[in-house]
Amino acid sequence: MNRRNSFILGLLFxxxxxxxxxxxxxxAGVSGDEAVGPAEARDSAxxxxxxxxxxxxxxxxxxxxKGDAKEWELDAVRAVRMTENEDWVIENVKVKFFGENGVTYxxxxxxxxxxxxxxxxxxxxxxxxxxSNNYTFKTEAVDYDSSKxxxxxPHDIEMIGPREGNGTRLRLTGTDLVADxxxxxxxxxxxxRAKKSIKDGKLAAIASxxxxxxxxxxxxxFYGDVVIDVDTxxxxxxxxxxxxxxxxxxxxxxxxxxxxxxTDVDKWATSRKVSVHFEDERFVFNGAPRxxxxxxxxxxxxxxxxxxxxxxxxxxARAKIESTADDRAAR
Length: 331
Known about the structure:
The chain is α+β, with helices and mostly antiparallel strands. Helix content is 16%, strand content 58%. It has a 21-stranded antiparallel beta sheet that branches. Strand 13 (233-244) and strand 14 form a beta hairpin.
């Protein structure tokens, strides 16, 4: 009897040991990876990532072409080809896009997504775009559309223009950038705000709905409710263009066209067009110009403000009359 009891107790003890060894990890909530140890779990996770990626390469260079024309050159630190769609994900990327007439746009960013079938590229993360004539744009992400040959971003952008002869640069912020490789025009579609240093450290502040720059030469155009403020002077009109000197490195003047109004402390003027020459502080009004200053109204074929408006010259003056109360209120 004692021998049988001893046998039963031994059998129960063996069953208990088996339960502790085999069943305890599951009952304690331990995962299978943890049960086999951290090294084995890490290997399992890496094998799962390999199944999602078909191929990984370090130090990648690639060229995208359309027909016989080269579209882009790409360099990246690392590239992963994804199994599900055969596209590439690239890290620390630099892409040079080729426009017409030798113009290029170089884009750098932390990550790139390459659509192999369409030749499209998305670059994101601290993106910087530089044109071959030294316009620089910073934004969150840029998309290259191969079918339209355009770089596009809907995000806010910061732009720095080429360094000019006097060492200054045009600085601009806005939203919705498009760089067209076919026309080499770079447009900022909304909320344009810019600043430009002019003579004697004066600052011109510019606001407009849209701005367009050339990828080939130094040219800047502003459209839609343009406002230019320089000290107490304000110029408003539907469009403005900054014109550069023949050397192409220094802004010579700005022309505002399409119905212009200029206001200052002691005068105001209207005309179809006004050209502001920064070097000698000369304002030239053309197209039915009209100036009201110190109680007098001046009308002529052309009116020129000299020395910042301290002197006025009128060509073919047709009238000089005392301004009305409505005119004084308009100032």
